[in-house]
Amino acid sequence: MGGVSYSDWFEIKRAVFPSSVNFECSKIVEYNIGINETREARFKVGGKNDDEKRDIKFELNNSNVSLSTSVWNAENEWILNTKITGKAIGETVITVKVEGKTLNVIKIKCINYKDVFSGTEAQKLINEINYIAPFADAGTAPEYDENYCMQAAERGISELLQNYTDFYSVERGTHRHRNRIGFSGLTAIDRGNKIQAKGFVSSKFDFNDYSIDHTKRTSIVDQNTYNAVKYDIIGFKSGGENTLNAYFQNAIRNKIGFHVFYFTVTNGFHTLLLVIDNTNPCNAKYTVYDQHGITTSTGNINQTAQGIRKQTSWTFANTCLNRYNSGKSSQWDSTKTILWKIQKK
After folding, report:
1. Is the pLDDT of residue 7 over 70?
2. Are β-strands 71-74 and 54-60 bridged in parallel, bridged antiparallel, or unpaired?
3. Cα–Cα distance, 115 to 266 (Å, whole number)
4. Helix/strand/coil (H, E, C) string of 257-318?
5. b/e for 133-162, b at 16 or more Cβ within 10 A?
6. Most buried of the four, 46, 221, 237, 311, by CB within 10 Å?
């Protein structure tokens, strides 16, 4: 009787089909993009990597958006890059196909949120602040003197919205005013409320859950003592930091893009702009600007409240130094922060 030899074994390597293809950032709940906006997007191929490349294709059900790349030959766990451009309002369903078979779908919304800006729009604001900064640093009079924070903030917004009628605006080079808007006798609170009345604000938020270290307040008698306490003379009351951070999270929600806030600290003493870059919700960033450019308040979105507190702290300390120099050190100023979230009309 003949025998069967099992001396030779061959291992059959089975390819592991991708489990899904989806946004690399798991925090993306709804992917939105504006008309004519182009943004890079990153997708991760799910599944255990077995070193096998597969044909992956994105098929769109309409032309509301376009993709710079829609076909890849990729392995599991790879990142797929493409640029998405918004073309028309509406939802687009992307069908993900691997080797011709449907794997899953991805939804993209092309929508014009009034209070969300593209990178191009936000950069116009930043460019204007960067243009202003050297003049403000030099104290160039009269257009860029030491009280220029209100004007600088509005110049930034005027470029963001490309609106030279409703906001203080100045021509570059000539430094001529584009309109008759002025600030005589007004504070940032007056201007913020005016901007809101004209329809350029989606939400307003008053915040004052701060605590004052009065021991440090009474220690301020000169520039050296001011410098020693300026960043920690103001803290948060219990729960205050969470309240302020919650406002920003609610104001931004799942809206991908740039968010801009006109705001004032210490109840009108100083005026600034807050820009939140939420183009990647897994790595959202905030930056605070004034007439001198980027301030010391910048970083991860979770630190936004601390950044606002820091701006409040040094300006409050500055008011204390001013009061000491004028013989009124037994009094102190308000710590209130007021924010207006900017939107298109």
Report:
1. no
2. antiparallel
3. 25
4. CEEEEEEEEHHHCEEEEEEEECCCHHHCEEEEEECCEEEEEEEEHHHHHHHHHHHHHHHHHH
5. bebbeeeeeeebeeebbbbbbbbbbbbbbe
6. 311
Q: Are the beta carbons of 46 and 73 closer than 8 angstroms?
A: no
Rounded distance between C-alpha atoms, residue 180 and residue 196, angstroms: 19
Residue 13 predicted with pLDDT over 90 = no
Percent of the chain with pLDDT strictly greater than 90: 89
Amino acid at 316: F
Side chain identity, residue 321 = L
Which pLDDT value is given to residue 14? 54
DSSP letters for 123-135: HHHHHHHHHHHHH
Which residue shows structure tokens 């979230």?
341
Domains observed in the chain: 21-110 (2.60.40.10), 119-342 (no CATH)
Q: What is the pLDDT of residues 24-49, one digit of tens each?
A: 999 999 999 999 999 999 999 999 99
Q: Which token pair is 137?
A: 């640093």
First-to-last alpha carbon distance for the chain, in angstroms, is 92
The structure tokens listed for 319 are: 């008011």
**Left if phi > 0, otherwise alpha if psi is -120 to 50, otherwise beta: which for 105?**
beta
pLDDT at residue 15 is higher than 60: no
Give the amino acid at 149: C
Query: 250: which 2 tokens?
Result: 């609610």
Alpha helical stretches, state H, the chain: 119-138, 149-161, 188-197, 214-219, 223-229, 240-252, 304-325
Rounded Cα gap, residues 255 and 113, in angstroms: 8
β partners of residue 235 = 211
Q: Which long-range contacts (CB under 8 A, 24 or more apart) does 274-279 make?
A: 274/304, 274/308, 274/339, 275/122, 275/125, 275/126, 276/248, 276/252, 276/301, 276/304, 277/122, 278/252, 279/39, 279/119
pTM listed for this prediction: 0.92
Q: Which SS3 state, helix, strand or coil, does residue 16 take? A: coil
Peptide bond into 142 cis (omega under 30): yes
333 pLDDT band, cuts 50/70/90, is very high
